[in-house]
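Notes, Module 5: Reading structure tokens.

Key idea: the token line is not a picture. It is a compressed description, and you learn to read it the same way you learned to read a sequence, by spotting repeated patterns. We will look at two proteins. The first is printed below with its tokens.
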Amino acid sequence: MPLFARPNRRQFVITALTASVAMLSVSPTVLAAADTSAVIEIGSLYEPQNLDNTAGAGQGINEAFNGNVYQALFGLTDDGDVQNVLATNFTVSDDGLTYTITLQGGVTFHSGDPLTAADVKASIERVTAESSKSSRKNSLSTITNIETPDDLTVVIALSERSISLPYNLSLCLDRQRCRNRHHRQ
């Protein structure tokens, strides 16, 4: 075994817990003398292979960019509820095969360009494309068509009912829940 081998998940968790307990056991006298300008740098074992979440970038892309760079239509709260993020609301047709999502107005990309329904459509189609290696591709496989009747409305047609669509179009608002969700998919 190499001297500096990457720890497995269990070793990493045990080390992190040990360090946490050690930090909590520091006496108040030591804390009072601590350098308040000190900086703690925290790293991740996951490193994105590229910046394209549809090109098989691995777990690192989720760790580094979800919530920091990428935003979703919806977010998951700590209780697992779906909350609007880039969407303001959604409705479901009586047969459960059509979702109509209304986007927030005034949302812009870093370039200053406005977020439009066409951008949402392009993003979903990129994730569901045959060549996509996105971890979300399978969860969106019931989508058969996406229409954009105006700049703030996205209409998604499904091949079968899916009460999970808003959940599947979400990112976690709590990072631990994100990690647990990713490992279950």
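Here is the second protein, with the sequence above and the tokens below, as before.
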Amino acid sequence: MINSNKTVYVFLFLALTALLSACNDDDGQLNQANVQNTVAMQCLEFQSQCQFDVADGHVDVLFDVNKIVAEHAFNISVNYRGVNNIKAVNGYMEGVDMFMGKIPLFLEPHIGLDDITINEVTSSKAQALENEKPIGEAQKQIYRGELLVGSCSAGQMTWKIWLTLTTADDQSNTIMLTVVSYRQ
């Protein structure tokens, strides 16, 4: 009886040791790698255009990656500086080299400095804060969203991004740019 209890305890000890060693902090290493791969918002190397002049303002379209890799999420930032109050930024992506459908862009307003740590706010809160600014004064408004492009058979693919900025008085400005994505 003592030997069988001893065997059970040894077995439980080994099982517990195996479970605890399987629960090591490898995820911490992955998270640290992700933080190191995160870059400030920037233009992509093969982006057709980063800056656009629109009526009464200027728009920068920036990304948080050095290059777009298919099936890996990345963020887009649409930064407006001008006298208008932007109430919405809508858009979509579509393949140039191969039709892969239209990928809708869901961009939300952000308030703060132009860096990746900006906290998200609701549209109504952003609208309320923007309404407090004096009329005619240049202001900066940022819209951000997360994107993901599909992989195709080619090693790289060109995408068109269509963005429409709508002002508080329902005036629309549409801009288009191209970017390149790569397979893993």
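Summary for the second protein:
- Residues 2-34 form one domain.
- Confidence is low (pLDDT under 50) at residues 18-37, 114-133.
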